[in-house]
Write a sequence for this structure.
C-alpha cells in the first residue's frame, strides 16, 4: 500500500568533468530534476528525471517534465491509497500521451518508496538476481582520432568492459578504425550514432562491419523502425535500438520487423520500471539481449539504473559508469564505484536504491523547488464544479 502525501521537486546543476558531445549536441552541465516523495507512513523515497536541457534526445526537456509532473502527473498519485508501484504507469498513462521521462520519475520514485516500506533492496523488489552489474563507458565525439584513442586506452586500462564511441557523419569510420587498431581485436567495442544517419547512408555504415563491433546503436531516426530493418539486412553488425524503443509495442515491432537485435533499456525513456520489466521479459522470451543505458544520471538515478540492471537478461555491459567518471562530487553516499573487474556492486544491505541521498548538499545546490501536495478538499470541490459544468 502506498499513499504519497508530498512530492518535492528540486532542480540542481552539476558540472560534468568534461563536456560530452553526441551527434545532436554537446552538454557540459546537467540540470537535474530530483523528486523527494513522502509517503503517509513516513517513508521517504527519491528519484531523478532524466530529461535533458534541450529536446535533442527526445522531445522532453527538464522544463517540460517539471510542468507535466506538477500539472498532470503528481496530482494523479497524490493523496490516493494505491495498492503498489505496479499500477502507477497505467494510472499516469490514461489519456496522458508521451512525457515518458516525467512519468518515469514519478513511477520510479514510487518503486523506491515501496521497496523502503517493505524493507527490501530496490533491486530485489524489481526481480533482480545479480549482486554486481557489468559496466561500460560511453565516450563523446572528439575532434581528432588521436584524442578518441587516448580516451579509449584510458577507459580500457581503468577496467571498463565495453567501450562505446559516439559517432556522426565525418567522425565515424576512421575513429572506430583507430580505436580498434589501438585496443586490439578482443575489446568489446560499439558505436552510437544517436540518429545521425539516413537509410541512404547504408553502404557507408556497412563499412563498420569490418571492425567486429558488438553493436551499432540507433543509426537512424526515432521513428525509422522499417528503415532500421532495411539497414539490418545490409549489415552484419547487430543494430541496437535506443531512441526508438519508447514502449512495449515498439519493442515488439523491432522484433517482428527485424529492426534490431539488441535493446538499450533506459527506464526514463520508456516511462519507468513496469514497462522496463515488460520489455526485459519480452526480450528474454525472444533471445534478445538487453543492457541499461545512461543519461548522465546523478547518484540517485544511477541507483535506479543499477537496480534495474540486476535483472537476469541484462547480459551486456551497461552505461553505468562510477560517479567519479562524471562528477567532482556526487550527491549520494557512498558514491558509486567500479571494481577492478569493471563491475558495479548492487547495494543489497539496505532498502530502496541503497545509497544515502546527501540532502544538505542538495539543499545547497537547489536552484528551484516546488512542493506538490494533494489538492485540498476546497480545490477538489471547485474542480468538480468545473468538470460538472453547471449540472446543478
Ligand atoms: O544515447 O546513450 C545515449 C547521454 C545522453 C543522451 C543519450 C545518450 C547518452 C549516453 C551517456 O551515451 C551514457 C552515460 O550516462 O554514461
Ligand atoms: Mg544511445
Amino acid at each position: 500500500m502506498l499513499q504519497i502525501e508530498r512530492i518535492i521537486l528540486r532542480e540542481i546543476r552539476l558540472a560534468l568533468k568534461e563536456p560530452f558531445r553526441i551527434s545532436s549536441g554537446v552538454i557540459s552541465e546537467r540540470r537535474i530534476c530530483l523528486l523527494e516523495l513522502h509517503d503517509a507512513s513516513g517513508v521517504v523515497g527519491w528519484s531523478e528525471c532524466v530529461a535533458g536541457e534541450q529536446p535533442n534526445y527526445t522531445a522532453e526537456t527538464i522544463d517540460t517534465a517539471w510542468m507535466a509532473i506538477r500539472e498532470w502527473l503528481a496530482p494523479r498519485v497524490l493523496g490516493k491509497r494505491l495498492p503498489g508501484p505496479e499500477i502507477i504507469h497505467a494510472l499516469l498513462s490514461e489519456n496522458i500521451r508521451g512525457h515518458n521521462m516525467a512519468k518515469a520519475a514519478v513511477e520510479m520514485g514510487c518503486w523506491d518508496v515501496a521497496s523502503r516500506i517493505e524493507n527490501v533492496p530496490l533491486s530485489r523488489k524489481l526481480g533482480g538476481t545479480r549482486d554486481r552489474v557489468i559496466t561500460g563507458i560511453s565516450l563523446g565525439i572528439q575532434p581528432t582520432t588521436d584524442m578518441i584513442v587516448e580516451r579509449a586506452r584510458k577507459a580500457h586500462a581503468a577496467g571498463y568492459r565495453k567501450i562505446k564511441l559516439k559517432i556522426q557523419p565525418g567522425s565515424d569510420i576512421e575513429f572506430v578504425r583507430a580505436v580498434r587498431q589501438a585496443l586490439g581485436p578482443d575489446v568489446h567495442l560499439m558505436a552510437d550514432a544517436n540518429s545521425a544517419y539516413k537509410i541512404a547512408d547504408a553502404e557507408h555504415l556497412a563499412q563498420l562491419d569490418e571492425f567486429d563491433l558488438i553493436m551499432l546503436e540507433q543509426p537512424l531516426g526515432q521513428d525509422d523502425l522499417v528503415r532500421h530493418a532495411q539497414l539490418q539486412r545490409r549489415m552484419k553488425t547487430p543494430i541496437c535500438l535506443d531512441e526508438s524503443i519508447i514502449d512495449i509495442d515498439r519493442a515488439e515491432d523491432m522484433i517482428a520487423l527485424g529492426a534490431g537485435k539488441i535493446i538499450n533499456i533506459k527506464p526514463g525513456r520508456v516511462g519507468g520500471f513496469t514497462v522496463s520489466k515488460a520489455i526485459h521479459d519480452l526480450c528474454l522470451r525472444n533471445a534478445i539481449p538487453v543492457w541499461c543505458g545512461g543519461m548522465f544520471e546523478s547518484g540517485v538515478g544511477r541507483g535506479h539504473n543499477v537496480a534495474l540492471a540486476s535483472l537476469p537478461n541484462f547480459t551486456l555491459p551497461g552505461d553505468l559508469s562510477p560517479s567519479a567518471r562524471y562528477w567532482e562530487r556526487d550527491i549520494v553516499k557512498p558514491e558509486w564505484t567500479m571494481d577492478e573487474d569493471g563491475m558495479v556492486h548492487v547495494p543489497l544491505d539496505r532498502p530502496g536504491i541503497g545509497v544515502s541521498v546527501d540532502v544538505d548538499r542538495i539543499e545547497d545546490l537547489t536552484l528551484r523547488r516546488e512542493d506538490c501536495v494533494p489538492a485540498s478538499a476546497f480545490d477538489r470541490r471547485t474542480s468538480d464544479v468545473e468538470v460538472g459544468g453547471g449540472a446543478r
Q: What stands out?
A: Residues 105 and 314 are 21 Å apart (CA to CA). The pocket of 2-succinylbenzoate (ligand 1) is lined by residues 22, 57, 138, 192, 194, 242, 293-296, 319, 321 (CB under 6 Å). The two ends are 36 Å apart (CA to CA).
